Write the structure tokens for this entry.
Amino acid sequence: MFCWGAKAKSLNAVGFPNARDWNPTEEDWKLPENWQEIFLEGMRERLSKYRSFRLFMDICVRCGACADKCHFFIGTGDPKNMPVLRAELLRSVYRRYFTKAGKMFGKLAGARDLDLKVLKELWYYAFQCTECRRCSVFCPYGIDTAEITIIVRELLNLLGLNIQWTMGPVADCYMKGNHLGIEPHTMVNIFETMCDDIETLTGIKITPSFNRKGAEILFVTPSGDFFADPGTYTCMGYLMLFHELGLDYTWSTYAAEGGNFGFFTSNEMAKRLNSKIYAEAKRLGVKWILGGECGHMWRVMNQYMDTWNGPADFLEVPKSPVTGTVFENARSTRMTHIIEFTADLIRHGKLKLDPRRNDHLKVTFHDSCNTSRAMGIFEEPRYVIKSVCNHFYEMPDGTTREQTFCCGSGSGFNAGENMELRLRGGLPRANAVKYVRDKYDVNMLANICAIDRAALTTSMNYWNPGMGVTGVHELVANALIMTGEKKRETNMRGDPLDMPVEEPEAEAGAAAPADKAAGGKANV
Amino acid sequence: MPTIDFQGKQIELDEDGYLVNLGDWTPDLATHLATGDGMTLTESHWEVINFLRDYYAKYQIAPMIKILVKEIAKSMGPEKGNTKYLYELYPAGPAKQACRYAGLPKPTGCV
Ligand code: SF4
Ligand code: SF4
């Protein structure tokens, strides 16, 4: 269970070392002759640079609290997928080369020589950890195994041992502005198509702007949102919402990616990709940045951006032009998550909503690892969903909020060749979804992450066939009553609406029930 | 990387059977790849392949499904403009299977 090795052309595009085509199933991984030296030197450097790394190498007491918390351990039963043993793969090398006991007593002190077999094992298990950090929630010492995986991947990267499913997007994002390699004119073509669909649905013509200097807000979202279903419906939701608000904003074809697969290769690469968003904000002269429904993008923003590329003090602290709310939590990054922005709109009664248009759905919400554990975004998505849908059900405790289960394909694992691992890793989440499906007839799994929209679609097709997957702003768009819109016959996906027969005056007074809904919920 | 010997030429494929060099593509090669999967390419199949190639030449990426569906509806009638029809033609998925025969690379990222 693994992804194909990174290709020479992708590694070359960003100047990564040991660029060559290689195949993990072959004996020879085409490593540089002094690979061991490179690895250990890299380790030495990082031990002195990151105090957390040294600490995590030293303090684990092997209590086992983390052991059964990893979705990959639950799904594969492979002991080396217990977080404690995953970390032990590197710890044994650490002991051998960086501790006195290990240097003197070797095996007796739990130390291992770094040979080819050990290196391959490190590779195999570093790419069976989605860096989701669920295990860290349960560790009494606060050891974050994801951070250890991040370091292992950095070290492997020094030897050119990455996977193509992350390297391809990294190279494309660096060269073309987004993970998928969508060219500027292609992006415009795609948006025209989406706007045509919006016009068919609502009768309203939207013409978004690209690379517009002097706009108040730069909007950045993962490119998956404007390429793959069901993300496209969420993207259309953004377009409709911003149009209805009359927001002074622009898209960019240069910073056309909110996600950051660089983060799955090395911190340095993540920094390079992240800096593009800020360079573009500066070039366009916007006041602040609004970001779409993404997971890991927000981990990067919230936990790393400020030290890497911040402070972004050439921008203003994000302030909603509609409600006047200042997003204090984004004071240094100057970038706000759209779910906070929309929750604030609803809270102030600024949107006309008809939640009955989502009555065909029974919705549950999957907390993304990164927005929950790295940002604490728990209430906003639930508040928005409950404002636009009448039927919402929570999955069982222990599988949501900070204890949420990974989708199974995070951190760049979404490759076709990796299907077995993805489905196994997706099992715990799917199991919780099955619970609410059986109990409440839930038929729609909402989330605020583009990887989720892709990964959960696959996982649900296998584990819970018939379960839909949606971004929250698709649900918002279903319910959003736009000024001058025609009567909606279908939802965003073109499926007929399952709604009570409208009263005759509904056309003129369409806002009335929605006003009540929006106003009523705003007091929650 | 695997290569196939086709009409006296060595053609490089990636691990999933996609062409490495897009310039290697010929209609015969598409037929050959399909035959390898036990498939016969009919006119309807070619309609999709030709559109994919035209779109790629213009936009340097495979079209998103939405665009493909619309295009098929335009040229073959609205009753065929849906994903179900495309899956009937290409059971392994229009994006994956048809792109492979059309000689296009597969998109990677949050898809
Ligand atoms: S919970 Fe923490 S201390 Fe206990 S085994 Fe896991 S990593 Fe080590
Ligand atoms: S970070 Fe997530 S995937 Fe990695 S070991 Fe911990 S629980 Fe498992």
